[in-house]
Amino acid sequence: MALRKKIDKVLGNILIVIMGVMVINVLWQVFTRFIIGTPSSFTDELARYLMIWLGILGAAYVSGRNMHVAIDVLPLRSSNKTQKKLKLIVYILIIAFAFFAMIIGGLRLVYITYTLDQYSPALQMPLAVVYFAIPLSGALIIYYKISDILNIK
Amino acid sequence: NRLSDTRTIKLAHSLDVNHSVHKAMVKMGEDLAKISGGKMQLEIYPSQQLGTERECIELLQIGSLDMTKVSVGVMENFAPRMKVFGLPFLFRDKEHAFQVLDGPIGQELLDEGTKYWIKGLAYYDAGSRSFYTKDKPINSPSDLKGLKIRVMESVTAVNMVNSLGGSATPISWGELYTSLQQGVVDGAENNPPSFYLSRHYEVCKYYTLDEHTVLPDVLIIGTHLWNDLSEQEKKWMQQAVDSSVVYQRKLWAEAEKEALEEVQKAGVEIIYPDKTLFSNEVEDVYSDIKENEDMYNLVQRIQNTK
Amino acid sequence: MEYIPIIVLVLSFIGLLSIGMPVAWSIAISSVLTMLVSIPALPAFTTVSQRMGTGLDSFALLAIPFFVLSGQLMNKGGIAHRLIAFAKTLVGSLPGGLALINVIGAMLMGAIAGSAMASASAMGSILGPEMEKEGYSREFGAAVNITSATTGLVIPPSNILIVYSLASGGVSIAALFLAGYIPGILTGLFLMLVASFWAKKKKYKVGKRSSLKQVLKAFIDAVPSLFLLVIVIGGIITGIFTATEASAIAVLYTLVLGFIYKEISFKSLPEILLDSSATTAVVMLLIGASMSMSWVMSYENIPQNISSTLLAISDNKIIILLLINLILLFVGIFMDMTPAVLIFTPIFLPVVTALGMDPIQFGIIMVLNLCIGLCTPPVGSVLFVGVGIAQTTIQKVVKPLLPMFLAMIVALFLVTYFPQLTLWLPSLFDL
Ligand code: NA
Ligand code: NA
């Protein structure tokens, strides 16, 4: 559990920084356009890419805290034993999705954009960096869900 | 689809179904089915259903889409030498532009994408871009001073507008109408049909035909599919593409004429400025290019094309 | 063959939900399963990743984290409280007073910005906690917030009407904007009516009528908070910033005011930032996943197949309009608004214009209809925002949502069968 707490903490701090930078970045956009008169050419793009990171990494964070919105119609009506089994199935399916779509699919996306030299239009930042959030988040989700499986009581 | 003899090719683009490019693609599909005896079919997804232009290129590379159409402005991220089209006043006139695009230089640039797993097949006409403004008419570059002009999100476009004296402001196309209305930007630049179809003329009452850049559309195919096609299939494909290009250019010329008539009817003042005032302004852009030998040679070859 | 994808999509989605899979993962997994019907595994996995990532690649979405953040700052910084205290002196004596404030606020917000998600995040984070304090159920508050937020998509300015104009081949945007006022306000009024009835039935607390003196005192207290509205509205109208940027300005202003009131300290900032990030992330994963679902629906031509099957049933005008509305309602359940407008405008517009309907009226019908879809699972961005911010669950919100849907459907049918509601205002301006 100590490791899990540590990961929570680091992940939380990253999200705080992303959110803070996002606000400052958009304020800077208004400031450069309206006060200075020479609009910044990168703030829009930076904001959108930070947003992808916030959303995708945040998905891992809320997944670790089991904050996702679920519709528990069936599980509530079934016996304790079936509930445990259903929980196990749900966790295994999430792990499968995180592995195949987010890690395999995500890494292939990172690989494609990296080997094909894809850069963002304004910041000229490698798009692989933007998409790397996906496999990273996938790995964290798998960690959290395995830890959840070990803790099913 | 491997079960039957027919091959269904998925083509996505971002324009609506009334656009000349879409109509030309429909014709391409009909031609392709006819000349291949039904062995090749085209399935078209218009209106950005499968993603923006950049995202569609990625889908070609990923392998879930076969063909798409993008502006060279987007293509330059995948075939960097296409940045040359972003240079203002590169072509003397429309004939010159077609000579270059249909000649060896155009073909060379189309093939360049293959190392990025995409291959250009042809150029569709997207006319030339000019400024339109809300409150203040632009008769010469000095009128652009201090005006916030919306540009595409591309370094080349930003440099181009700034070199002409405007203040380039990247804003997404979808948010532009309200941004113009509310005065976040003072104007924008685009070709006549886009100015007309986007209804920006309801807000902007001055259209200055300085024709600063010619940014054609590029039809591309993923090499995942292209390398899988037989020589015969490639021939059929190229044949259908070529006749769609001829058809599209005809439709485009009509659309351009209609757009200018319609916006004029709606009270837009069309200004035909002295273009040399504008082209003189961008000499710096060309002298900066000398540092990049490859780009400089390319510009020379284009300018020397008769 | 063409029905296999829709069957896979619907069955896998319902199956996953029923074993207790969180909605976002149910959407994502059923989308990838549907892709596997016609795309090889590796490209399919990569495509899901790409859609989830690029689904969030939009500047307009930024309004969500920012309004969530400024809402939290307003609550902690005492601004929200002062604003609501003032509003309560005005309508607090009516049944469901706070709910009415929510609807009016959403319509005003809609008249400034074109984003329902911005409105839902702003109103939800400010009013939600207050409603709970007054004894409203969290779910009722969320339901009012979710449905009323969509009125802003019909009341101009509206980005979705611009999308429609493009898809229709150039219906006048100015005319569409004018046409949106009456249907938008009408929907808002119906929602207020339903909310009032519900509040009365549930016997929610009704405040006393305030004296003029009390109103004035509350007003003076609220002046610095009201000034936020002046800055946001004024800034957008004068073109200093866009609606999305306004949400960042709101963060700055509420932060500064919170410091001045000494109700926020630097030490409490990280926690506020983390809370808003987590709330945002819940919503973002839902949106990213639902973008994959919208994509696979387009890819498999599911919308076109549904409509060609249904439209073959009849050629009676009233029935066709009914069918079109039903198809759109169904599609709105599974698809985001923008792709739905882009796909269906070219399919339906020729049908309805052949029946003599004005394209302006049809645009409003379409948007009004798809507004309902924004409030239904599995693909409903405004629902996600509202539920995420209220920190409740989708299944609990469904019950109070149903009567609200009824209000929206009544408005939709009035607009469908009475062209004057949309065409009268534009005709005054010769548009
Ligand atoms: Na609006
Ligand atoms: Na929905």
TrEMBL record, chain A:
Family note: Belongs to the TRAP transporter small permease family.
Any one GO biological process: C4-dicarboxylate transport
Keywords: Cell inner membrane, Cell membrane, Membrane, Transmembrane, Transmembrane helix, Transport
Domain Tripartite ATP-independent periplasmic transporters DctQ component stretches: 22-150
GO cellular component: plasma membrane
Main location: membrane
GO molecular function: transmembrane transporter activity
Keyword Cell membrane set for record: yes
Annotated membrane topology: Multi-pass membrane protein
Family matches, as Pfam families: DctQ
Protein name, as recorded: TRAP-type C4-dicarboxylate transport system, small permease component
Compartment annotation: Cell inner membrane
TrEMBL record, chain C:
Entry's Gene Ontology cellular component terms: plasma membrane
Localization, UniProt: Cell inner membrane
Pfam families: DctM
Keyword Amino-acid biosynthesis found: no
One of the record's GO molecular function terms: transmembrane transporter activity
Major subcellular site: membrane
Membrane topology, record value: Multi-pass membrane protein
Domain of life: Bacteria
Lineage, uppermost ranks: Bacteria, Pseudomonadati, Bacteroidota, Flavobacteriia, Flavobacteriales
Domain annotation TRAP C4-dicarboxylate transport system permease DctM subunit: ranges: 11-421
Name listed for the protein in its UniProt record: TRAP transporter, DctM subunit
PANTHER family found in the cross-reference section: SIALIC ACID TRAP TRANSPORTER PERMEASE PROTEIN SIAT-RELATED, TRAP TRANSPORTER LARGE PERMEASE PROTEIN
TM regions (residue ranges): 7-32, 52-71, 173-198, 218-237, 243-261, 273-298, 318-335, 340-357, 363-389, 401-425
Keywords on record: Cell inner membrane, Cell membrane, Membrane, Transmembrane, Transmembrane helix
